[in-house]
Specification:
10 strands, D-Maltodextrin-Binding Protein, domain 2, 436 residues, alpha/beta
Length: 436
């Protein structure tokens, strides 16, 4: 805002001196709805912290990842607060690229953060990013179609039950597919689903010595089950379907079940957007009785790069944006249904939130079923549930995703896809010095 000379004359010398010394912090964030809403509510922060000015850099997800990764790796110092995912936190913290969040204030209540989410954002017991919203994955299903099939969905189904139910609910003549699952290639698309699924089948990306495991029977069982299930009960062209495509299919009444992100529940249960809003039930992601469920874990979080010169001001902002009071602020302006989900235990104990979000309990149970520090049945040298927290995973995960998507499309066999995945992973890990 431009101040006229006359106006300047009316301001006290102390006010001008204070404004001149106000500290400005730059925040890099993603252009999703929750983050955009946060920017509209920052008057609350500046009222409580008049000596801190906020500068925003709001970017599309892929651009954000590229910009913040380049900046932090080169110590560019453009940003004082960064929005990053669960994937980056353990990698960057081990590189000493992030500051530990140990000055969030006495009333912040770190212990209220859902343990599974906090564990994914911590290294050696220290929190390196504060979650803005979190998610897992679970089963969303049509209660009317389940009843018509003569079945009752358990709260904790097995993969065998899902297959049985999918086959009985499939009605191709009326455009109903028994199950819709991600098939679009990408480390954060089909491989998020398939890696989480593989955990429940006893598979792992690497053994304790970083040797790739795609040549082992657990991966063969996972991929064969998935391909067979989708061929018998999935939609046509499933290899092109990601989150958004399956969301549209489910909302249009074309899926009996959909296993995907817990944040989707608010969309499929919204009568303004979903034709089946009053018919949706929820269950935990399936398992095979091996002690791990096929659900993932993710959080968009705020972190502070080690190169900032404004760490104290940055921590004050992070504390504000991820606090219990912020959730109350959003609720007062937008209603409880629009509060960022998946971060704090106290939210899920709140009767007002429970009333606004009938899927709340199953969301919390799903998040708690994931353990990023012990994601697999057998021991592994990595952390991460639906990803492996090493820098090479983004490229390798997308390569493997393309191979598995091709198997789903019938362009290659399951055995060939797994062999090529094993070869690609071996080459990547050899080049990276993980194996000889």
């Amino acid at each position: 805002m431009k101040l006229r000379t006359l106006t300047l004359g009316l301001l006290s010398a102390s006010t001008l001196a204070f404004a001149a010394h106000a500290e400005s912090i730059t925040i890099a964030t993603v252009n999703n709805g929750d983050m955009v809403r946060m920017q509209t509510l920052t008057d609350d922060f500046t009222a409580k912290n008049p000596d801190i000015q906020l500068q925003w850099v709001t970017l599309e997800e892929n651009v954000l990842r590229e910009r913040v990764t380049t900046d932090i790796a080169t110590k560019g110092g453009q940003y004082d607060v960064m929005t990053i995912g669960t994937y980056e936190v353990p990698i960057w913290a081990k590189q000493s690229w992030l500051l530990p969040l140990d000055k969030l204030g006495d009333d912040y209540d770190v212990k209220d953060i859902i343990p599974a989410i906090a564990n994914g954002l911590s290294v050696d017991g220290k929190l390196y990013a504060a979650p803005f919203y979190g998610e897992s994955s679970f089963v969303m299903y049509r209660k009317d179609l389940m009843e018509k099939a003569g079945l009752t969905m358990p709260d904790a189904p097995t993969w065998d039950f899902v297959k049985q139910a999918a086959e009985k609910m499939t009605d191709r003549a009326n455009g109903v597919n028994g199950v819709c699952l991600r098939g679009k290639a990408g480390w954060g698309e089909n491989m998020a689903f398939l890696t989480a699924m593989s955990n429940s089948f006893g598979a792992r990306w690497f053994d304790e010595n970083w040797k790739p495991q795609f040549d082992q029977p657990e991966w063969k069982n996972t991929l064969q089950f998935y391909v067979d299930l989708m061929k018998s009960s999935g939609p046509e062209g499933a290899s092109s379907n990601g989150f958004n495509e399956n969301l549209a299919l489910f909302q249009q009444g074309k899926c009996g079940m959909w296993i995907d992100a817990t944040v989707a529940a608010s969309f499929v249960s919204d009568p303004k957007a979903s034709t089946v809003a009053d018919k949706v039930g929820y269950a935990l992601a399936p398992d095979n009785g091996l002690g791990k469920r096929g659900n993932w874990l993710w959080a968009w979080s705020l972190a502070i790069p080690a190169g900032t010169q404004k760490a104290d001001a940055a921590q004050k902002f992070v504390a504000w944006a991820t606090s219990k009071d912020y959730l109350k602020l959003v609720a007062s302006k937008e209603g409880w249904a629009n509060v960022p989900p998946g971060t704090r235990t106290s939210l899920y104990a709140n009767p007002e939130y429970q009333k606004a979000a009938p899927f709340a309990k199953m969301t919390l149970d799903s998040i708690n079923a994931a353990d990023p520090t012990h994601p697999t049945v057998k021991p592994v040298p990595y952390v991460g549930v639906q990803f492996v927290a090493i820098p090479e995973f983004q490229g390798l995960g997308t390569t493997v995703g393309q191979l598995f998507s091709a198997a789903l499309a019938g362009q290659t066999s399951v055995d060939d896809a797994l062999k090529q995945a094993q070869d690609a992973a071996t080459a990547t890990m050899t080049e990276g010095g993980y194996i000889q």
